[in-house]
């Protein structure tokens, strides 16, 4: 698949951050690199916990890092793992909050691309902010 230099750099950033994964239980490192529409890159990796459900995925770590720095408009996300696994359902929902047009590059740890897709394709018929636009307190 033909990738732009920007996409290759984003995948490389995801590979780099995956080396920081805290994964004593799964031994499954994941790295995510999220590029804003103005070009900044925010990364995240999975951080596990002895209380298993408290684990945070790489993708959500990247989103929360970007939002904490004041960014809410995103262009593309690279996510890397051993086998090029897809973002989990919870991460798809969190990504959808900020726009279903986001391009998602799913790769393995060598940088080989498995899928180039969008949040819209990963989470069709997403529930999102628009569903709550006309809701009011009763
Ligand atoms: N994981 C992610 O970081 N992202 C996903 O979308 C799927 C799963 C992590 C969570 C856990 O640390 C490990 O992969 C195995 O589930």
Notes on the protein architecture:
With 138 residues, the chain is of the alpha+beta class. The protein has one domain (5-137): Cytidine Deaminase, domain 2 (3-Layer(aba) Sandwich), CATH 3.40.140.10. It contains four helices and five strands, in the order αββαβαββα. It has a five-stranded mixed β-sheet. A hairpin with a 4-residue loop joins strand 1 and strand 2 (41-45). It is globular, with a radius of gyration of 15 Å. The termini are far apart. The mean pLDDT is 97. The structure holds tetrahydrodeoxyuridine (THU). Residues 23, 26, 28, 30, 46, 48, 55, 57-59, 85, 87-88, 91 line the site of tetrahydrodeoxyuridine (THU).
Q: What is the architecture at the second tier of CATH?
A: 3-Layer(aba) Sandwich
First-last Cα distance: 52 Å
- Write down the CATH class: Alpha Beta
Can you tell me the residue ranges where pLDDT is under 50 for at least 5 consecutive residues? none
**Elements, N to C (H/E):** HEEHEHEEH
Please, how many domains? Answer: 1
| Topology, number of strands | 5
Biggest sheet details: 5 strands, mixed
SS field, number of helical segments: 4
CATH homology superfamily name: Cytidine Deaminase, domain 2
- Ligands, deduplicated: tetrahydrodeoxyuridine
Q: Rg, please?
A: 15 Å
Shape: globular
Mean pLDDT: 97
Strand order of the largest sheet: 2-1-3-4-5
Please state the structural category: alpha+beta
């Amino acid at each position: 698949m033909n990738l732009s230099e920007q996409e290759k750099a984003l995948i490389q950033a995801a590979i780099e951050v995956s080396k920081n994964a805290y994964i004593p239980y799964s031994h499954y490192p994941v790295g995510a690199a999220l590029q804003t529409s103005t070009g900044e890159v925010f990364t995240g990796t999975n951080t596990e916990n002895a209380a298993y459900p408290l684990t945070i995925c790489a993708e959500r770590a990247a989103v929360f890092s970007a939002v904490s720095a004041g960014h809410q408009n995103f262009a593309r996300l690279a996510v890397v793992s051993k086998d090029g696994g897809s973002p989990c359902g919870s991460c798809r929902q969190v990504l959808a909050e900020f726009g279903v047009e986001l391009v998602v590059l799913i790769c393995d740890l060598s940088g080989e691309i498995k899928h180039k897709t969008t949040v819209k394709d990963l989470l069709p018929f997403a529930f999102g902010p628009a569903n709550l636009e006309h809701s009011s307190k009763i």
